[in-house]
Amino acid sequence: MKVYASENKEEKITISKYLQGQFAEHLGRGIYGGLWVGKDSDIPNVNGIRSDIIEALKKINVPVLRWPGGSFADQYHWRDGIGNYKDRRKIFNNSWGGVVEDNSFGTHEFFELCRQLGCEAYINVNLGSGTVREMADWIEYITAKTGSTMADLRAKNGHPEPWKIKFLGLGNEAWMGGGYMRPDYYADTYRRYQTYVPEYNGDIYKIASGPCDGDFEWTDKVMDIAHNFMNGFSLHHYALTDTFDNKGDAVDFDETEWGSLLYSAKRMDDLINDNLNHMAAHDPEHKVDLIVDEWGTWLEAQKGTNPAFLYQQNTIRDAIVAATTFNIFNKHAKYVKMANIAQMVNVLQAMVLTKDDKMILTPTYFAFDMYKFHQDADLIDAYSNNGSDISYTISRKNNEYIISVCNSSITADEDVTIKFDHKLGAPNYSKILAGKQMNDHNTFEEPENVKEQSYSDYSISNDEINISSKKMSVITIKIPVAE
Hints:
By secondary structure, the protein is of the alpha/beta class. It contains 9 helices and 25 strands. Helix 8 links the parallel strand 12 and strand 13.
């Protein structure tokens, strides 16, 4: 493959750092036993949050975290999660397995998690079983300065200073578990709720519940009725090996399932294109951004675990899906401004898996680590096509070219030659993440089966680089521009 990476002098497109956002829901062991162990735990923690996970996640520059759901958001009542732990209301998590939720991880703990990660907060409020007043009170509790009843309650609970909400989702999957609403009903409900979003501590970016995959009737009706009242419109798409009711195994799969999962993941490109076209019919100036706040692989839960907890292993195939999806997001960086993988820890396509006091990094974690250099970089080119095994992103930041190439083939290496506008210096970063077998993964017994390695199988001549892209691999190279 030959690529001409010529920089666009007329239009500057920035790859939003928020495209590498995360998602943590009250689901299975995503919060409890994952991120949160409590202040009295023998597992090293700071204010109840696992220190080893924080140390790992800080390395991938997490830009934003979505919470408390997901489906759980529409049964979450924020007052249950404040005040003394012993006095907090215990409920059944009817969204995920009917297990007891003790609400020991609530608003204060979430913002402490964001503080430790150094990331922005994306709060998803309850439209399914909540009220407008409940939402407005919660935002006041979080963001208002002292003087109001809600702000004084926050101070009484140990945090006098207000926090900031960067992003606010109003409802989640309103077409299904978020209320089984019709699109016109949701659009009117959204308009009512957003009217009463108070902004005490900076602007709040409001996100409407968008479609699953290609439900363009939902896109058209919600955009027609409510686009003037939103900043972002969400899209959810999960990569599957077959139908949702016939999901494949996360580790024990064959070549056909490798291909079907990658095909499903690459559909993201068409889904973004098609939804953007439908959005543009109502918003021709693209004032509303597309937000992909749930994406990733959804496979069978690991045998022997609670199927409602969605705990799945993570192989080199998942890393290939992640890198391919990043390339698709970057390709559409002009209009897609945030994405949140599902999910951060112990759920679906996680960055980290835990077992008691042990922790392992997944292949997907390393894909995020290798793509973090594109955060807020200027896009030069990005490519993905369901007919090609090669996808890539090329960007420029701090006078460096950043090249990431993904080869999703399970059989063939392929050379990728990239020609630039400027002479190239010597690379200062060059890593590869690759699998020898298509189901290579890390375990608690062998935690380093799949990890980044130094990479040198490239050649540079003046303004051109030739990269030997290995099968089942992700490669990132950073090269100073020698102008």
